[in-house]
Request: fold
Amino acid sequence: MFSPRLLMVCLILGLLSYGCGHKESKEESAKEESKETQEFKVQAMKFIEAGTATTAKASQGVPYADLKAQVVSTNAQHDLLIAVWPKGLAADARLDFWDATAGWDRALSLWDLKIKKADNPTEPDVNGFDSYFAVGGKRLDVQKFGKDYLVKSYRGKRYLPFDSNIKILLELAGMSFDTGRMQILKILEGEGKGEGAKK
Reply:
């Protein structure tokens, strides 16, 4: 049989071993969390930079091709950001960024219809009429075709004029982006201060 002293020594050694292992596990978790946070910061700043360029171009009235290229680049960066977005962090900002990218997409879609000289989006759902309301809602400029309009099937129906709604969608996208951007910058600034205080 083991002596009480030997059992006590084994117990102490076991506890020390557990404590060291538990400490290492905590440190590894902290390192992983820190790595994820750093990756989020990097991707967030890249998206903010791309989104800021998009809103600037949209307000300057650049040609369709230029804005489309910028939006494609910005949306790609948005995908990278969403892929590393920590669960539960700034849900409102995340939604604002989704609204911004959706607004840019819908604005370009409407602009593309205009360039192709397609019919205006018209109820019930000609050329994606309903899809624009999912982004622009009641802020969209909605007009009605007259009762004597050339195309009989469109008479008396609501439709979306191109120019005014392209402008509205770009403005709404810019507003959503700016709201989300300010929230994220506040979070990143707060974390930066916290890290500075730790040092």
